[in-house]
């Protein structure tokens, strides 16, 4: 038989795919960890309803969005209707309640951009961050979760990308690289762009879920169990997808002009977003539009130095996936 160019490519990925899937499987939190998290959250819920009438807790971040690897911290949002207190004061009050319950390593970061209280539960060893009235994070976590239900390849791809980013130290917003949230949006956008597409654009479909948070209206199609076959005419494996993901960010993305947008399922220009100039510390060197807070660029943390680090890491990853004899090991090698 004559091998076509595409066949050679498929063979290249045939060896890679099982290796990557086994890395993915090791990252999935085991059932006992999920149980431990539930136990901790039940305890926290009881504590708050006992000591703070009218306050409610919501889970967000990787515990709620289906993109949590083993031993992730838990992100919780405290929702209270209190116009007279600042977020910092509410965080202080929460810290007091945690102290009376003997939680450990309690730190109230009242001056942060998003005030939070961090602590450790001595019974389970779980680390938890609580912020106040940040319902947009709860809603965008639901959006990510709903996307993950459409096609299993999103969760596989995102786990591998997050793991790679942590190992290579390019998942540190305080040092100018990208958040986990930004990486998951990059994965969703990438799968929206495959042909045939692997993911739809939920925000451009007839909304079945609508909430208003502050001034922002959030609406999208969330009956995702009806979309389980959406991507099935595309047969790409996670090995191929991860390789093309890094190829895209290494050499295809137009860093000068383009904005990726999960909200529209495509690209926008920096011109139309007015993200062409540096304003304050925001340089827009890599542009990732937040799906609901559309003036928000998740790449705003990236600076002249960290953009180079990031692009070099994308290139390194792409090169390894194409050329290395032991790609799964080299790719995730600690920096
Ligand atoms: P890991 O903790 O690394 O496993 O990932 P995570 O999914 O918890 O993501 P991350 O810690 O980056 O962010 C937590 C949540 O904060 C996200 O799921 C979003 O809901 C919310 N969020 C909203 N805007 C931002 C933002 O600008 N930066 C970050 N980091 N998070 C945001
Ligand atoms: Mg988190």
Q: Any descriptors?
A:
335 residues, alpha+beta, Beta Polymerase, domain 2, Poly(a)-polymerase, middle domain, 2 domains, 5-stranded mixed sheet, 3-stranded mixed sheet, 44% helix, 15% strand, globular, binds guanosine-5'-triphosphate, binds magnesium ion
Write up what this structure looks like:
This protein is α+β, with helices and mostly antiparallel strands and 335 residues long. The chain folds into two domains: 31-133, Beta Polymerase, domain 2; 137-331, Poly(a)-polymerase, middle domain. It contains ten helices and ten strands. A five-stranded mixed sheet has the order 1-2-5-4-3, sandwiched between helices. A three-stranded mixed sheet has the order 9-8-10. Helix 5 (152-167) packs across helix 6 and helix 7 crosses helix 9. The protein starts with a helix and ends with a helix. The structure holds guanosine-5'-triphosphate and magnesium ion. Residues 60-62, 65, 67-68, 72-73, 75, 137, 140-141, 173, 179-181, 298 line the site of guanosine-5'-triphosphate.
Topology pattern, helix = H, strand = E: HHEEHEEEHHHEEHEEHEHH
Note the overall shape: globular
Strand content: 5-15%
- Please state how the strands of the largest beta sheet are arranged side by side: 1-2-5-4-3
Helix content: 40-55%
The small molecules bound here are: guanosine-5'-triphosphate, magnesium ion
Domains (count): 2
- How many β strands by DSSP? 10
User: Which stretches of 5+ consecutive residues score pLDDT under 50?
Assistant: none
> From the helix content, strand content and strand pairing, which structural class follows?
alpha+beta
Average pLDDT across residues?
95
């Amino acid at each position: 038989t004559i091998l076509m160019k595409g066949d050679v490519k498929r063979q290249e990925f045939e060896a890679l795919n099982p290796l990557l899937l086994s890395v993915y499987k090791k990252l999935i939190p085991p059932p006992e960890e999920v149980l431990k998290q539930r136990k901790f959250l039940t305890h926290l819920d009881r504590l708050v309803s006992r000591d703070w009438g009218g306050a409610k807790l919501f889970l967000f971040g990787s515990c709620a969005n289906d993109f949590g690897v083993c031993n992730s911290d838990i992100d919780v949002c405290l929702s209270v209707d209190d116009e007279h207190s600042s977020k910092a004061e509410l965080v202080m009050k929460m810290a007091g309640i945690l102290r009376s319950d003997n939680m450990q390593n309690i730190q109230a970061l009242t001056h942060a951009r998003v005030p939070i209280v961090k602590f450790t539960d001595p019974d389970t060893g779980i680390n938890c961050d609580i912020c106040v009235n940040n319902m947009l994070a709860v809603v965008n976590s639901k959006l990510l979760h709903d996307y993950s239900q459409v096609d299993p390849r999103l969760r596989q791809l995102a786990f591998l990308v997050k793991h790679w980013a942590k190992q290579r130290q390019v998942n540190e917003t305080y040092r100018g690289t990208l958040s986990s949230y930004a990486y998951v949006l990059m994965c969703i956008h990438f799968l929206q762009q495959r042909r045939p597409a692997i993911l739809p654009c939920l925000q451009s479909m007839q909304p079945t879920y609508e909430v208003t948070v502050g001034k922002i209206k959030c609406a999208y199609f969330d009956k995702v169990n009806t979309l389980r076959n959406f991507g099935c005419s595309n047969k790409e494996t996670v090995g191929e997808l991860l390789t093309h993901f890094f190829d895209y960010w290494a050499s295809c993305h137009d860093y000068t002009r383009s904005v990726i947008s999960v909200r529209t399922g495509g690209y926008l220009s920096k011109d139309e977003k007015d993200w062409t100039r540096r304003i304050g510390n925001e340089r827009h060197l890599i542009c990732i539009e937040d799906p609901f807070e559309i003036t928000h660029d998740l790449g705003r943390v990236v600076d002249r130095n960290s953009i180079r680090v990031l692009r070099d890491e994308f290139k390194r990853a792409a090169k390894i996936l194409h050329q290395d004899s032991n790609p799964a090991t080299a790719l995730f090698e600690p920096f």
